[in-house]
Amino acid sequence: MEIRLRNLRRNYGELHAVDDVSLDIPSNTVYGIIGRSGAGKSTLVRLVSMLEKPDNGEVYYDDKRVDDLSRDELIQERRKIGMIFQNFNLFSSRNAAENIAYPMEICHMDKAYIRQRTEELLELVGLAGRGNAAISTLSGGQKQRVAIARALAVKPAILFCDEATSALDPQTTRSILALIKEIQKKMNLTVVMITHQMEVVRDACDRVAVLDSGHIVEEGAVSDIFSAPKSAVTKDFLSSLTTVQESVVRWSKEGGHYTLRFRGSKTDEPIISTVSRSTGAIFNIRAAGVQSVEDEELGVMITDIGPDPQTAAAAVAMLRENGVTVEEEA
Amino acid sequence: MNTMITLVLEATRQTIVMVFLSTIFSMILGFPIGVLLHVTGSEEHGGIIPHPVFCNIISRIVNILRSFPFLILMIVLMPLSRLIIGTSIGTMATVIPLSIAAAPFVARVIESALKEVDPGVVQAAKAMGSSNWQIIYKVLIPEALPSLVSGVTLTIINLIGYSAMAGAIGGGGLGDLAIRYGYQRFRPSYMVAAVVIIIVMVELIQFVGDRISSRLIAKR
Fold it and tell me: What is the CATH number of the domain that holds B207?
C-alpha cells in the first residue's frame, strides 16, 4: 500500500513537533525515517499510523484518506495495519501464542483459524514450538519476534516500526532487520521504519527521509543519500556511522579536512593516484573504508590535501569531475 | 464457658457474613468507578478516553466520601438501610452502609492498580484496533490482575476493621461482642477472644491474597 502525507502539521502548545511534512512512501518498500531524538519522528509515526490526528494536513493510504475517520472507521482501519515498538509492548498476562492471537481475537475471528495462523506465524518468525512461553522468559530479540508475529497476524499491508531495534544489541538488531526485510518481500509489505540509527537505514531501508525539528530536510534512495548527503544533519548521522563502523579504519585523530565519498564502480578505480599525479596534490589519508549499502559499495575517506591551497582546490575540482563527493570542513 | 463459645461463634459468623457481602457489594459499586477514574484520566497515565472534567468531578466525590469519618458515614446512611431492607439494626442492615462506605476506597484501589499497566501496552492495543471496551477487559484488567488481587485483599481487611466499628452502632459481629460483653460487662476474656479471632482472620486473608497475587506474577 502506498502512503501519502500532505502538509502534515502537529503542534504541542508552542512546539511544532511536525511542521509541514509532505512525503510519498511508495508501496512495497522499506522506508526509513531518521531523526535525532526530539526531531518529531515519534509524533510523525503516530500521525501516519492513525494514533493521533494532525492539526493540519492529510494522510492517504492508497487513495483513502485516513486522518479524518470517525471512531468506528478508525478502529476498522487500524485493524489493517501492523505496528512494532521499541519496548515491544507485549501483554505480560498472555503467553507468546496468546499475544499473537490478540489482534485476531478482537476481530472475532474463528478460533480454529486463530490457532492455525498463530502456529504459522511462530514458524515464520523462527519461534516454532515456543508458543507457550511466558513473555518474561524470552530474550529481547525473541520478544521483538513475537511482536512482529503479532503485528502480522491480520495480514496487514503496512508495518510501522517505531525504533524497533533501539533496545537491542547490534547482533540481534541485524537479525531482526534481516527478518523484517525477508517478511517485507514475502508479504509485499510497505514497511515504515522510524529510527535514530544510521546502521538501521543502511542495513534495511530502500529509501530514507531525514527529519530535523519537524521538517523533512532530505529524502531519497539510501545509496544516493549515503554517497552524496546534502544537509548537515545527514552528514552528522553519516559521520557517527563512520566512526563506529568497524569497516572504516582511522589512523589518526588529527586533521582530515576533507571527506570524500565514492560510489559504486568508482571504488575500484585508482582515482586518488590519478588526481595526485596530474595535479601534484599530496593526500594524507586519515581514515578510510568501504561500506556496503543495498549491495552497492560506498567508499569513505577522510583526508588532508596539500601541499598548498591552490593545488588542493585543483585536486578537489578534479575529484568532483570524476564523480566523487567532496565535503570540506570549515 | 459454653455460652461464651456460642456467643463468639455467632459473632464470628455475623462478621464473616458482613464482610463477605459488603466486599461483594462494595466491589460492584467501586470497581466501575475505579475503571472510569482510570480511563477518563490523562493520556500520559494510560487514560484511553481522556475527559478531564468528568474525571475531576468523580475524583472529588470519591475524595469527599473517603474523608468522612466512617462512623459518621454509617449513621448518615442508616435511613437508607431502613428504606431498602426495612430495618437499620442487625447484620444485614449494616451491609448497606458498609458497602457504600468502602466503595470509594475500592475505586481508588482499582484505579491505582490499573495505573500500573504500562501505557505503551495500551497504546499497542489501541494501534491494533481494539475498542475501548476490549482494551478494558482484554488488556487493562488482565494486565493489572496481580495488583487487583492485592487491592481486593486490602479491601477485605479494611472491611473487617470497618465491620468491627459497625458493631458499635448495632451491627452485631465481633466488634459488637467485644464492646457489649468485653467492655460494658467487664469480661476481658470476650474482648481477647474477639481480638484474637479478628487478628487470625486478617492474617489468613493477607496470606491467601499474597499467595494468589504471587502465583499470578510467577506465571508471567
Answer: 1.10.3720.10
Residue A48 main-chain phi, psi, to 5 deg: -70, -30
CA distances from A299 to A197, A264, A318, B88 (A): 20, 8, 17, 89
Which domains can be identified in chain A, with CATH numbers? 3-222 (3.40.50.300), 245-328 (3.30.70.260)
**pLDDT tens, per residue, chain B with 220 residues:** 688 889 999 999 999 999 999 999 999 999 999 999 999 998 888 888 889 999 999 999 999 988 888 888 888 888 888 888 887 778 888 888 889 989 999 999 999 999 999 999 999 999 999 999 999 999 999 999 999 999 999 999 999 988 888 877 777 888 888 888 888 888 888 889 999 999 999 999 999 999 999 999 988 8
Give me the domain span that covers residue B20: 2-218
Q: Alpha carbon of A117 to those of A113, A127, A244: distances in Å?
A: 6, 13, 41
Residues of chain B with a CB closer than 8 angstroms to some CB in chain A: 118, 120-121, 123-131, 134, 138-139, 142-143, 145, 219-220
- ipTM of this model? 0.85
Query: How many domains does chain B contain in total?
Result: 1
Q: How far is A88 from chain B (nearest CA, A)?
A: 8
Tell me which residue in A93, A103, A106 faces B142 most closely, judged by beta carbons: A93
CB distance A78–B138 less than 8 Å?
no
Task: Read off the pTM.
Answer: 0.81
- Coil, helix or strand at residue A208: strand
| Residue B125 distance to chain A (closest CA, Å) | 8
